[in-house]
Amino acid sequence: MIETPVPAEVVILVHVTLPRVSTQADFDEFHELAVSAGISPALEIHAICRSACVKYLIGKGKVEEIHQAIKAHGADLVIFSHDLTPA
What we know:
Layout: E1 11-17, H1 24-36, E2 43-48, H2 60-73, E3 77-80
Parallel strand pairs: 1-2, 1-3
């Protein structure tokens, strides 16, 4: 029986920086956690959230940037550094 390798997922990491909460160490930890889970990010996007947007957490412009990155890289998965809720 011949085993074929499973194709790697194309992953985009989105690190959301919140005022007075997030630091560079937070980004480093987020990145290292992803790498230790076997993820090789195709792209890392940084989003600065000056005030929490209820609908997206991030602004509409950043949502569009992520959407374009998904299409450009053929991403299978997008991982955010903060919890997201259905609200």
